[in-house]
Amino acid sequence: MEAILNSIGQALLAWATRGVLALLKAYPWLPLALGALAAAALVMAVAWIVRALRARGHDRNWLPGPLWSARLVSAEKDYKANLPECVLVARPDRLYRRTDGVCELVEFKTRPRVAAYLSDVVELSAQAHVLRANGFRVANRAWVVVIHPLTEQCQPVAVQLESAAQVIERVRRRLSLLDGCVRPIGASSAAVCRGCGHREICSVRRA
């Protein structure tokens, strides 16, 4: 599919370029009459179509089958939800809307092992909670697309999201940790601990 889309894009770009050159050869006064901007705009428009076709073809390389007919709603866009405890902000990597109107979240992670972790589920669950507060119908299933750091191959992994009550409980625990009301217990995974941004000041970090 990607090869077909690339061929179509290259053909469109070549056709547009030949057309502009032919017009300029037949009517040398055309740039003066219409301005070089018009000719450049045509080439830019076709180039945009080419990029869109290539991007769609690239997405098909990793996009899960259930989302092939889905439409991209947003990419790295901020959403906010006003909770009684705080304002929760989420920036989903990708948000797709299926043909039935239900949205599914996609998160990209670069790691050598094709796996999804609890930290991924927590992050996606919070994103889903914020989106639902903004009127989106969000599925309980989400996707972690694992990108291999060397080969850049992409593999989607499906995960089940936590409930709204679980998300709120995690929000309350985080606020309690920040207030010093409860003591942190540390990450269960050494890899998660090593990747945490608070590791240097954490009193329960793992070796």
**How many domains, in number, for the residues?**
2
Number of helices: 6
SS content category: alpha+beta
Residue share in helix: 40-55%
Report the mean per-residue pLDDT as an integer.
Answer: 79
Spans with pLDDT under 50 lasting ≥5 residues?
52-57
Strand content range: 15-25%
Helix and strand sequence: HHHEEEEEHEEHH
What is the annotated CATH architecture of the largest domain? Alpha-Beta Complex
Q: Please outline the major beta sheet.
A: 5 strands, mixed
What's the arrangement of strands in the largest beta sheet? 1-4-5-6-7
Question: Can you count the beta strands?
Answer: 7
- What's the Cα radius of gyration? 24 Å
Describe the structure.
The chain has 207 residues and is an alpha+beta fold. It has helices spanning 2-26, 30-34, 36-59, 118-133, 164-179, 190-194, and strands spanning 71-75, 79-82, 87-90, 94-97, 103-110, 141-147, 154-160. The chain has two domains: 2-59; 65-187, Lambda Exonuclease, Chain A, CATH 3.90.320.10. It contains six helices and seven strands, in the order αααβββββαββαα. Helix 1 (2-26) runs antiparallel to helix 3. The longest helix has 25 residues, at 2-26.
